[in-house]
Specification:
Layout: E1 5-12, H1 18-31, E2 37-44, E3 50-52, E4 75-79, E5 85-89, E6 96-97, E7 100-103, H2 114-121, E8 125-126, H3 131-138, H4 140-149, E9 157-161, H5 162-167, H6 169-177, E10 184-188, E11 198-200, H7 206-213, E12 219-224, E13 228-236, E14 242-243, E15 247-251, H8 260-265, E16 270-273, H9 280-296, E17 302-310, E18 316-322, H10 332-339, H11 344-363
The structure holds adenosine-5'-diphosphate (ADP) and magnesium ion (MG).
Length: about 375
C-alpha cells in the first residue's frame, strides 16, 4: 500500500462546468489503475469549499457523476513539514500525504491557471498544463494571437472590451464589424460550452449579441463566421508530441451551430465521426497543426485542439484549445486516444507519470543565484 502513488482526483469546481466535471471525474476515478495508485477524491463545491470524500462504499459501475458527500470533512492544500504538498483537515485529524493532483475540472477557476497556481504554491505535482499555458489557452484572444504568431491560420476577429462598448456603443459596433462579413460569431473570451455565444446574421443584431456576451466576460470576440467542418485532435506529451486520429463533430442540421443545447440538452445534438472523414494529407496536416498549437502555447501533458476546416478554401484554421478537456467515457479526448491505440487506463497512468516527471524537473531547478 505504502509504495503506491497517491493521486488526488480533484473534481467539481466553481465554474459553470461543475456538473460536467463530476462526470469526467467519475470516469477518471473508475479507470485509474489501483495496482499503481491510491486514489483520493477531493471535491470543490460551487462555493469553493474543498472536501475529502470517502467513496469506499460507492458502486463505481453505477456511478455516472462523482458525488460530493454532505458530511465530508473540509480540507485545504498545504505544504507539509518536508515541503511536500499535503491535505490538511480544517477541523481535526492528521495531514494526508499526496504525490500528485489530477484536476478533473473544466472552465474558469479550474482550467485557467488559478488552481494550477495554488498547486504550484503547495509544491505538488499535477496533471496537465502549468499556470502560463492554462491561462493563455483559456483566453480565446491570447491563444489565437500566439497561434497566429507561430504561423497557424486563425479566423479574422475583432476584440471589444466592456468598458469601451459602454463608453461609445456606436463606434464600438462599427469597429467590431470592420473588415468582417456576415455571419459573425460573438463569443465571451473566457467561457466554454458555447455559453454566451451568438451567431449574428444581420448587423442590426450585433448590439444585442454583444450585450448578452458581456454578461459573461469583460472581453468579447467578434469573429468571422466560417462555413466549416469541425475537426478535433487529442494531443499527448511523450518523447515527442503524439497527435491522435482526428474526429469530426457534425452538429445536427436543426442547430445553427454547436450550441449549448446541441452539446448538452439534445441527445441527438451532434454526430461524431471518429476518425474524421479526411484524406491522408488532410489528416496529417491537422495532426501537425495540433502539435504546433500545443507547442506554441507551451502546454504540458495533454490537450484537445479544435479546428475549423473551411469548406470553400479547404484550409484548416485553429479555433480553440482545451487544456483540461472533458474526460467522461463518452468524451472526445479519451475516445480519440483509444481509437489511436492508447486505452483509457494507460492514458491516465501516462498523464500521472508525466506530472511526476515535470514536477521533478522543476524541483531540480535552482531558485536563486548559484556561483
Ligand atoms: N468563426 C466561427 N465560424 C463558424 N462557427 C463558429 C465560429 N466560432 C464558433 N462557432 C461555432 O460555435 C461553437 C462554439 O464556439 P467555440 O469557439 O468552440 O467556443 P466554446 O469554448 O464555447 O466551445 C463552435 O463549435 C462552432 O459550432
Ligand atoms: Mg468549442
Amino acid at each position: 500500500m505504502a509504495d503506491k502513488t497517491r493521486v488526488v482526483v480533484l473534481y467539481g469546481g466553481r465554474s459553470g462546468e461543475h456538473e460536467v466535471s463530476l462526470k469526467s471525474a467519475a470516469s477518471a476515478f473508475r479507470h485509474l489503475d489501483r495496482s499503481r495508485f491510491e486514489v483520493i477524491p477531493v471535491s470543490v463545491d460551487k462555493a469553493g469549499r474543498w472536501q475529502l470524500n470517502d467513496l469506499h462504499a460507492l458502486d463505481l459501475a453505477q456511478t455516472v457523476s462523482l458525488p460530493i458527500l454532505p458530511d465530508a470533512p473540509e480540507i485545504r492544500l498545504a505544504r507539509g513539514p518536508d515541503g511536500r504538498g499535503v491535505l490538511m483537515p480544517i477541523a481535526q485529524g492528521a495531514p494526508v500525504e499526496i504525490d500528485v493532483v489530477f484536476p478533473v475540472m473544466h472552465g474558469p477557476l479550474c482550467e485557467d491557471g488559478t488552481v494550477q497556481g495554488l498547486l504550484e504554491l503547495a509544491d505538488v505535482a499535477y496533471v496537465g498544463s502549468g499556470v502560463l499555458a492554462s491561462a493563455v489557452s483559456m483566453d480565446k484572444d491570447v491563444a489565437k494571437r500566439l497561434a497566429a504568431f507561430a504561423g497557424i491560420p486563425v479566423a479574422p476577429y475583432r476584440v471589444l472590451t466592456r468598458k469601451e462598448f459602454a463608453r461609445d456603443r456606436s463606434s464600438s459596433l462599427a469597429r467590431a464589424a470592420e473588415g468582417l462579413s456576415l455571419p459573425v460569431f460573438v463569443k465571451p473570451c473566457n467561457m466554454g460550452s458555447s455559453v454566451g455565444i451568438h451567431k449574428v446574421k444581420t448587423w442590426d443584431a450585433l448590439g444585442a449579441a454583444l450585450d448578452d456576451a458581456f454578461r459573461y466576460d469583460v472581453k468579447v470576440l467578434v469573429e468571422q463566421g466560417i462555413d466549416a467542418r469541425e475537426i478535433e485532435v487529442a494531443v499527448l506529451e511523450g518523447e515527442t508530441l503524439f497527435a491522435s486520429l482526428a474526429s469530426e463533430l457534425n452538429p445536427n442540421a436543426h442547430h445553427e451551430f454547436y450550441s449549448y443545447e446541441a452539446k448538452y440538452l439534445d441527445p441527438d445534438g451532434a454526430r461524431v465521426d471518429l476518425p474524421a472523414r479526411l484524406d491522408a494529407a488532410q489528416m496529417a496536416r491537422v495532426q501537425s497543426l495540433a502539435t504546433q498549437v500545443f507547442a506554441a502555447l507551451e502546454c504540458s501533458g495533454f490537450a484537445r485542439v479544435d479546428f475549423f476546416l473551411d469548406r470553400k478554401s479547404g484550409e484548416f484554421c485553429f479555433n480553440e484549445i482545451n487544456t483540461l478537456p472533458g474526460f467522461t467515457s463518452i468524451s472526445m479526448y479519451p475516445k480519440m486516444m483509444e481509437a489511436s491505440g492508447v486505452p483509457y487506463p494507460e492514458l491516465l497512468t501516462r498523464l500521472v507519470n508525466l506530472a511526476l516527471d515535470r514536477h521533478e524537473q522543476r524541483q531540480s531547478l535552482e531558485r536563486g543565484y548559484v556561483s
